[in-house]
Write a structure and sequence with these properties.
The structure is a homotrimer of 460-residue chains. Chain A is an all-alpha fold. The first copy, chain A, has a single domain, classed as Ammonium transporter AmtB like domains (Ammonium transporter fold), CATH 1.10.3430.10. In chain A, strands 1-2 form a two-stranded parallel ribbon. In chain A, helix 7 packs antiparallel against helix 13 and helix 7 runs parallel beside helix 16. The relative contact order of chain A is 0.14. The C terminus of chain A is likely disordered. Chains A and B meet through helix 3, helix 8, helix 9, helix 12 and helix 15 of A and helix 1, strand 1, helix 2, helix 3 and helix 4 of B. Chains A, B, C: Belongs to the ammonium transporter (TC 2.A.49) family. Rh subfamily. Chains A, B, C: It comes from Bos taurus. Chains A, B, C: One of its GO terms (cellular component) is apical plasma membrane. Chains A, B, C: One of its GO terms (biological process) is transepithelial ammonium transport.
Chain lengths: 460, 460, 460
């Protein structure tokens, strides 16, 4: 096989063609929803709204910005742990997310915000587009270091499409609750990415083994990603919840779950090391599993101690996964999972989906109040014969649909990405920025001397 | 003394036991407050609230997230300035804060949000838990590099307990104003930590002197912490202020104070260097003293120029402290204050407490308006014989109580932490990540060459 | 010429004198606006406001904090790309911004918030002060590495003054729309800075050429700045827009423009490299041009696809500028533009101004609705003979005024900064932190060994 990693024509053409197509489609289809349109001034009078604050903007803007930080800084920097792949981690994540949010506005728009003629966008669409791209960032973690930016654009194109369809099935047909996306974002993204990684299996990846580890400073950069994901996860899980108590509860639950998850991740990391030392990989990743695991139930009545339990379990399972499962997946199943997304998003996503099914099936009027139950599950819009038990079964169905879509979609996309002309690098050059980036020469002397002889002494 | 830093059983057992206890206590005691409960839907009708926006969530969520960033990224990265202690700074701060917020929800809950049967939590509890942990992060700065994570968990357990009691005395018994916590958070945290450091005095710490300095990049990581603390401090000081003008005023005052503080910190840093050069330690720390000093008065009528004066003074005092006081404390009083928390939190916290007493004692109807005065000091809830003078004296009393609690508590906790089996390192191994962390090997060649010979040239 | 870079007296005196003057002026002039004053409690009753949420604080606080992050972390870290100038980039940006916001509160206050006796400040003033300082940060980018902190303070003093006058002319006399400041902030700041750089031309700058490049990690630090600017730009462009739909629309438009800009920046960066490799300089800077270009039209009816087109064009033009224009400016016009602000803020700012003139001149009732049009352009406050065409011409006039003010002001300030006693460094010592900062010695061995021989093995 001839490896040609020179993207001089392929990458520019891909970017420009995609963007021109997006502009054309936006021109034909995308308009502002009422509360972002100047006609809102009249609408306020018609709807008898007392204040501009009733504009959706003020309910969701802070959460939106937090989610935005998670996608670009959170995921971007989390993946900078590799010693020579920092530019690509941050830069390709930036590229795929910037493309993905535009395509998601269209795909999700057609399926969910289409008024027959136009897609009407407001802040909720932007949040949902960020969410959709979040699942692509998850999948990127599985193939990190082994694909070209052109492959990433293609993967994003397909994954956003499949994500939107899967989301439509879950939210609109099965009417499941999944406000933080345990199923639609995390489980779907992880298993999609793992399937792609499986198809793209590289038998000689050990040739770039040396670059698969971190350095001292690359691990600190990665902690920037970890912490912004961890801190803003309450916003992630509450961003599109119902106004009022649901948003409030989702934030509290996620806060609790993540706190518990840190303690069990630390515990297991130390217990599984022969000298009791902590492993940065676990601290960077497993501590976040509590946010993933709470994605489905965040706005439901799990109670704070229920959230703690979920975080407790996810921290343990995720750390165990990093120690035992990732090597197993690579050696036995030929799945090379660079960032261990199976441990951070895969299993915790499934746990979240199961927790959602269980929590929904035990919902009752005592716990929620009569109006509260109707409001929480949107029953007035739904079938009359609604029951908690049925909701629970639909939740479980949603999990299976997500996994099935991820596996089938991952196979198809993986096969497309295996075509040899996307500019991928040979196995021995994986995890290396210099393949796709102009890299600065290191300064001759790395020492920054306080009394540099090249500096003229100042006059006294 | 036999030093055993292998935490393989001690750290996991401590984490898991604590977390299991927390889950049990949360299960028995913690429920959602009304505005995070599904019954809120009915409550809105009963209370005749016009909109979901009246949910406390929308008043405080942006401030909460900013405070959250300050605790985890702000304090965490501020301490990464040490050349070989970045993992521990960020990682142990992460661990103790994640444990501390859970324990604080319980302790503060029992004392302040207990309805006789349950602790009812909403967003304000989360903010207060973060605040409480902030004082532990301050104390951590004093002992940074010299304690094991097990010691930190124990210190957090006790300090959160003492903090909650002290806070209860100040806010509920003495009814002082301290919305940004000059007294409860900063002065208490600093003197508690310094007392612990005094008890844990290490006579041979000079053996790890070499690792007590920074490197070029570790200083830049620390600036991430500094800036997020600096930028979000207006949120910190306004997060639990009264709705409306008080929150608004607290943000403006803090913004002003911090801006002034930067100028005087820079001025003093340059003036105190024989060649007029700036010292990163001062820029990283003293610039923040203006936020600490404004913690008590932030929501009071100090006026913008009063805030500037406080910031002006704090910047000067704090920088002087780093240059003259820290060496004095170490050589004469045997207090080894790794991060100089005495200069950043100790003295400015006392200045803040005094400023609060003065500002309260000159409060009057001209300045606040009649309703404004009652609202600002919550007089309707308090004794009828309220007077500004009395309030001022209670404020001063609050400062003394905080200092007394810190000193007494610090001695007790210090003695407990001196027990030899918590996994602490010998003096010559302080400030070293490798004691508790798996550290990556540095790559053989640090040079990242643009034209790496190991990269196959792409086909033309 | 004798170069004396010892600032021991000059910098402290400058900082302290300026701060004392600011405190005096704040004491005489600055008070709280009504919604940050305790009399607000009564005001609510008088104005019949239903809720504390009507306090301006709740409309704008999240946007304010995002803008604050952009100024201090965004601009500060964006400039850390230089290998030996990270302390100065972050530190001097911190210093000039902290001084600038105070001076801007006064200058903008006298011109726009003066009630005859006092400047009444609220959150909007803080945002505007941050905006004003943003233009100084832009200018700083042009002279980065070549000026002393004393020069920066002087530049800030004058630039804030000129900015405020220019802003007054545009917003109050010409009544142009420029909520995100394409003209007032970006074009003004860039051409002011470039003119200063032109006057301060250093013929022997090639002597410090070696330090003008980046290192691997300095580029990652710079990406922190890039991403926080990119992510929070929707807040920047919407922060002072009208309540409701205008803020909402400005956020959506900016989000779209920035996303498109990333794709065209990547495309051009790859296409212009002989091996198709990406250049970090473009990814760090050109990706942001879409935010600059949308500054004037953000709240107008450009529609999402119009925003995409602006972002598309700005990404291309900006990347071309970095490749072709910056070398041309240096070699032919003797303008040494360290950060390439001409490409990121100059040309995109002009594009934004032109887009504003075009968009305003095609405004009509179909697009905005009758009340919407009046509200969007504030027509009720303005002359009766308002027409879109006239608005368009005033917008164009505003752009010319901004450019003229920048060039004339830049010449004057440049001449002042050329005086030889401000502590500037000789050409061969530019881009070097050690001139003004105490720099840590690099540790003897940079290797952090996992099994450090200096660490006593733990007892079994």
């Amino acid at each position: 096989m001839i490896w040609n990693t020179n993207l001089r024509w392929r990458l520019p053409v891909a970017c420009l063609l995609l963007e021109v197509a997006l502009i054309a489609l936006f021109g034909v289809f995308v308009r502002y929803d009422m509360d972002a349109d100047p006609h809102w001034v009249q609408e306020k009078v018609i709807k008898n709204l007392s204040t501009d604050l009733e504009n959706e903007f003020y309910y969701r803007y802070p959460s939106f910005q937090d989610v935005h930080v998670m996608i670009f800084v959170g995921f971007g920097f989390l993946m900078t742990f590799l010693q020579r792949y920092g530019y690509s981690s941050v830069g390709f994540n930036f590229l795929l997310a910037a493309f993905g949010i535009q395509w998601a506005l269209l795909m999700q728009g057609w399926l969910q915000s289409f008024d027959g003629r136009y897609i009407l966008v407001d802040l909720e669409n932007l949040i949902n587009a960020d969410f959709c791209v979040g699942s692509v960032c998850v999948a990127f973690g599985a193939v990190l270091g082994k694909v070209s930016p052109v492959q990433l654009l293609i993967m994003t194109l397909f994954q956003v499409t499949l994500f939107s369809i899967n989301e439509y099935i879950l939210l609109n047909l099965l009417e499941v609750k999944d406000s933080g996306g345990s199923m639609t974002i995390h489980a779907f993204g992880a298993y999609f990415g793992l399937t792609v990684a499986w198809i793209l299996y590289r038998p000689n990846l050990h040739l770039s083994k040396e670059r698969q580890s971190s350095t001292y400073h690359s691990d600190l950069f990665a902690m920037i990603g970890t912490l912004f994901l961890w801190m803003y996860w309450p916003s992630f899980n509450s961003a599109i919840s119902n106004h009022g108590d649901a948003q409030h509860r989702a934030a509290i639950n996620t806060y609790c779950s993540l706190a518990a998850c840190v303690l069990t991740s630390v515990a297991l990391s130390s217990a599984l090391h022969r000298k009791g030392k902590l492993d940065m990989v676990h601290i960077q990743n497993a501590t976040l599993a509590g946010g993933v695991g709470l994605g489905t139930v965040a706005e439901l009545m799990v109670l704070p101690f229920g959230s703690l339990i979920i975080g407790f379990v996810c921290g343990i399972v995720s750390t165990l996964g990093f120690v035992y499962l990732t090597p197993f997946l690579e050696s036995r199943l030929h799945i090379q999972d660079t960032c261990g997304v199976h441990n951070l998003h895969g299993i915790p996503g499934i746990i979240g989906g199961i927790a959602g099914a269980v929590t929904a099936s035990i919902a009752n009027i005592d716990l929620y109040g009569e109006e509260g139950l109707a409001y929480a599950f949107g029953i007035e819009r739904s079938k009359l014969n609604w029951s908690p038990n049925m909701q629970g079964r639909f939740q479980a169905a949603g999990l299976f649909v997500s996994l099935a879509m991820a596996l089938v979609g991952g196979v198809i996309v993986g096969v497309i990405l295996r075509l040899p002309f996307w500019g991928q690098a040979p196995d021995e050059n994986c995890f290396e920025d210099a393949v796709y980036w102009e890299i600065p020469k290191e300064p001759k002397s790395t020492a920054l001397r306080s009394e540099d002889s090249s500096i003229k002494p100042p006059e006294p």
